[in-house]
Amino acid sequence: MFDEADPLLNRLRALALAFPGAAEKISHGHPAFFTTKVFAYYGGSVKVDGVYRQHEQSVLVLVDPDERAALVGEDRCYVPAYLGAYGWIGVDLTGDTDWDEIDELLDASYRRTAGPRRVAVLDSRRPQP
C-alpha cells in the first residue's frame, strides 16, 4: 500500500523517528510511528458517497481540537476515515510541503500520545513550539 522509496515518506520518517523512543511499524498496510501509542500514520483515506478516496501521500496526526478546526478548512487537509471521529486530521504531502509545519504537527501529536516521561525528554532536547 506504500512505496518504500517514496521521498515524502522518507522525509516524514526522518522527522518522526527523531522523537524520543519513536519507532515504526506497519499498521493496516501503512507506516505508523509510535511510542506506546501511535502519533502519526503515513497515508489515509476519506469515505465519499460510500467510496474510499485514498490520500496515499499524507500524514495523519492527532492535534488539539482548536488546531484541528483551523486545519480542516484547508484544501490540503481532510478528516480521515475511521480515525477522524477520534480527532485525527490528515495533511496531504507534496513537493511544496512546509516540513517545519509538519514537524510541529508531529510534535503536537507526539505530546498527546507519548506520555509525560517521553515529553520531558523531548522538552530537554527542543523548546516547545
TrEMBL record:
<dbReference type="InterPro" id="IPR058532">
    <property type="entry name" value="YjbR/MT2646/Rv2570-like"/>
</dbReference>
<dbReference type="InterPro" id="IPR038056">
    <property type="entry name" value="YjbR-like_sf"/>
</dbReference>
<protein>
    <submittedName>
        <fullName>YjbR protein</fullName>
    </submittedName>
</protein>
<dbReference type="Pfam" id="PF04237">
    <property type="entry name" value="YjbR"/>
</dbReference>
